[in-house]
Amino acid sequence: MGSGSRGVLLFKSSSSLVSLSPSLASTQLSRFGFSKSIATSKVYRMAATDASSSSSSSVSDGHCINPLDSSSASNGTAFSSSASSAIDFLSLCHRLKTTKRAGWVLRDVKDPESISDHMYRMGLMGLIMADVPGVNRDKCIKMAIVHDIAEAIVGDITPSDGIPKEEKSRREREALDHMCKLLGGDARAKEIGELWMEYEENSTPEAKIVKDFDKVEMILQALEYENGQRKDLDEFFESTAARLKPMVAEIAGKFQTDLGKAWAAEIASRRKKDN
Questions:
Q1: What value, to the nearest 5°, has the Cα angle with vertex 267 and ends 138 and 254?
Q2: Which GO molecular function annotation, any one, does this entry have (predicted)?
Q3: pTM of the entire structure?
Q4: What is the dihedral angle through the alpha carbons of 170, 174, 179, 184, rounded to the nearest 10 degrees?
Q5: Residue 201 burial (C-beta neighbours within 10 Å; 0-12, 13-18, 19+)
Q6: Contact, 222 vs 237, CB < 8 A?
Q7: Which of 9, 21, 38, 205 allows an S-S link to 25, with CB 3.0 to 4.6 Å?
Q8: What structural domains and CATH numbers belong to the chain?
Q9: pLDDT of 54 higher than 70
Q10: pLDDT tier at 240, thresholds 50, 70, 90
């Protein structure tokens, strides 16, 4: 909660859970026998996100309890242990913010995007996509966030590096295993590993959509660099067949989903107008 946010005090009356703003807390709680110091203490202020589910956990024997209180020995130990793994993992992921996408570097693009820039906009694609029957949108967002995560260790390997596809995959899997172990190998690490593998194997509807997002984001970025830096990046459009000659036949060659084809066609049409 920000410094300017207004807290909410929860307490239980005889029949229901009641939420009060700080300005009303002292006056109203005195009616129920609470002291002024308790009524105004910030320790007892909390956000009321789900009153029905909070009533049993937030209130006990007429006293207010902070559900975010980590003073218990068990919680404190668990958070301390997981915090170490989390910060180690996040520190490693910092490389995703500082490693530039190799394709743009090789084409002398000024101030090229980082790997995390690319993944972030793909995550936004999942966030704004229309509902597709049989597709879990939240899963698409998560998959977009982790699909290139192994590049924090191996870097952005491109075809120009001359590394066989099988070797590239082996290196990335090894890197991912290391990152999941660094995270502690718990449920979150397992989820990241499964999402990454699902994407790599292109084995689900969500993977196919995110594979299309990967190409769509690339050609959109190429269009933006063309417009902003007056560069000819036609090879990136050629690599995804996102051209208008004829539009439907060309785009269908690389994109697997109707959503991907529609977005790619829109980008290609804008490129034709701008050029």
A1: 70
A2: metal ion binding
A3: 0.69
A4: 130
A5: exposed
A6: yes
A7: 9
A8: 83-270 (1.10.3210.10)
A9: no
A10: confident
Q: 251, 239 in Cβ contact below 8 A? A: no
Average pLDDT, integer, range 122-135: 97
Q: Give the integer Cα–Cα distance in Å for 18 and 11.
A: 6
Q: ω into residue 67 within 30 of 0, thus cis?
A: no
Per-residue model confidence (pLDDT) at position 164: 95
- Asked if residue 119 lies in contact with residue 96, where contact means CB atoms within 8 angstroms, the answer is yes
Report yes or no: 190 and 180 within 8 Å, Cβ to Cβ.
yes
Three-class HEC string of the chain: CCCCCCCEEEEECCCCEEEECHHHHHHHHHCCCCCHHHHHCHHHEECCCCHHHHHHHHEECCEECCCCCCCCHHHHHHHHHHHHHHHHHHHHHHHHHHCECHHHHHCCCCCCCEHHHHHHHHHHHHHHCCCCCCCCHHHHHHHHHHCCCCHHHHCCCCHHHCCCHHHHHHHHHHHHHHHHHHCCCCHHHHHHHHHHHHHHHCCCHHHHHHHHHHHHHHHHHHHHHHHHHCCCCHHHHHHHCCCCCCHHHHHHCCCCCHHHHHHHHHHHHHHHHHC
Question: How far is residue 194 from each of residues 119, 139, 165, 185, measured CA to CA in Å?
Answer: 17, 11, 20, 12
The separation between the first and the last C-alpha atoms of the chain, rounded to the nearest angstrom, is 48
